[in-house]
Structure formats: structure tokens, C-alpha cells
Design a protein that fits this description.
The chain has about 180 residues and is an alpha/beta fold. Strands 1-2-5-4-3 form a five-stranded mixed beta sheet. It has a two-stranded parallel sheet with strand order 6-7. It contains four helices and seven strands, in the order αββαββββαβα. The chain is elongated and about 60 Å long. The chain has a domain of about 110 residues: 2-Layer Sandwich (Beta Polymerase, domain 2), CATH 3.30.460.80.
Length: about 180
């Protein structure tokens, strides 16, 4: 018997009740949300449960929503794949904008190691319990997080490009206001 989305929802709801919510199809992928306190246990349950068998972490990434209220300004998105039934699931957890942190899932999926480091590097999301949470691509001296929407798009101090060649001049910026 194929693994239906109703079975996934029932298994998770029975185990975690109000810690999992908003089950829906989103762009052809079954999606739901888990609270930050429960996310590690939810991911572990989905891997170990004999009915669910989500045995592969396809991706883990961050999203920044600066216009949202403080307690939901960041999201960590987990994409899991059940190879046996060929089912994919997207799990989201929303984090506080002032202190974006969540438990690491490296102990559940070793592949999360570099994905969490990259998410930390670009969004500043802290993965508690990560074995080596440090920058992976950006310079260690960089104090901002370039994928946050409040990060400047261009470096005003660059001297290697001339905006005139791109149809932009300081006068154009003034007319946009």
C-alpha cells in the first residue's frame, strides 16, 4: 500500500498533537509546520517510524521574512524523501527574528552538517548542538549575513565596476525616490 498524505498527517498528529500544524499541499509537495521545540524530534520520528520511513534529507535551507512579526521572521525548511514509497515532504519551522535558533539535526542526518553551516553562514540562524557551527563560504571577518533581506545588495565601496555601464547613475537613484 502506498504511503498517503493522510497517513503521514495522522502519524504525526497522533504523536505530536499541537506541535505539528498547517498540513497542506504546496506546489505538489506535502508540507506542514512544526514548532522549533519539536522539530528535531519530528524529523527523527519521520526517519525512524516504520510507516513513514523518510530516510533521506534532500535539503535544508533558511528563509528570511523581515516584514513578518518578530516571532516568525525566519524559517528553516527541511525537504525529506522516502525512497521506498517515493514520497517527498517539506517541513517548516518558524523562528524568532531577534534570536533565530533551532536544534541541529546533524545527529539524525549527517548530511545536515554542511547544510546547517551554510544556513548559519548566510542567514545567521544558530543550530544548537551542531558539532562545528562556523562559516563555510563567507569570510570569517564578515559580520553580516548576505541572504538576509536587510543586507545591502551592492557594496558602495566597490571600485572595480562603473554603474554608467549598467545604465545606472547617481542621478537615476534620486529619481527613483
Amino acid at each position: 500500500m502506498a504511503l498517503e498524505t493522510t497517513i503521514i498527517e495522522k502519524e504525526l498528529s497522533d504523536k505530536f498533537s499541537d506541535q505539528v500544524l498547517n498540513f497542506r499541499m504546496e506546489r505538489d509537495i506535502f508540507t506542514f509546520e512544526a514548532t522549533p521545540k519539536a522539530i528535531k524530534e519530528v524529523i527523527s520520528f519521520m526517519k525512524e517510524n516504520e510507516t513513514l520511513r523518510f530516510n533521506f534529507l534532500t535539503d535544508l535551507c533558511g528563509v528570511h521574512y523581515p516584514d513578518n512579526e518578530k516571532n516568525v521572521q525566519f524559517t528553516v525548511v527541511y525537504l525529506l524523501h522516502n525512497w521506498v514509497d517515493n514520497i517527498r515532504v517539506r517541513v517548516k519551522t518558524f523562528l524568532n527574528g531577534d534570536k533565530p535558533e533551532v536544534d541541529s539535526v546533524v545527529g539524525v542526518f549527517a548530511a545536515a552538517n554542511w547544510m546547517e553551516r551554510e544556513t548559519y553562514d548566510f542567514y545567521g540562524i544558530i543550530f544548537k548542538g551542531h558539532p562545528n557551527l562556523k562559516k563555510i563560504l563567507n569570510d570569517d571577518g564578515m559580520v553580516s549575513f548576505p541572504m538576509r533581506k536587510d543586507h545591502p545588495l551592492e557594496d558602495a565601496g566597490r571600485t572595480d565596476k562603473d554603474d554608467r555601464f549598467f545604465g545606472r547613475t547617481p542621478n537615476n537613484y534620486e529619481s527613483d525616490k
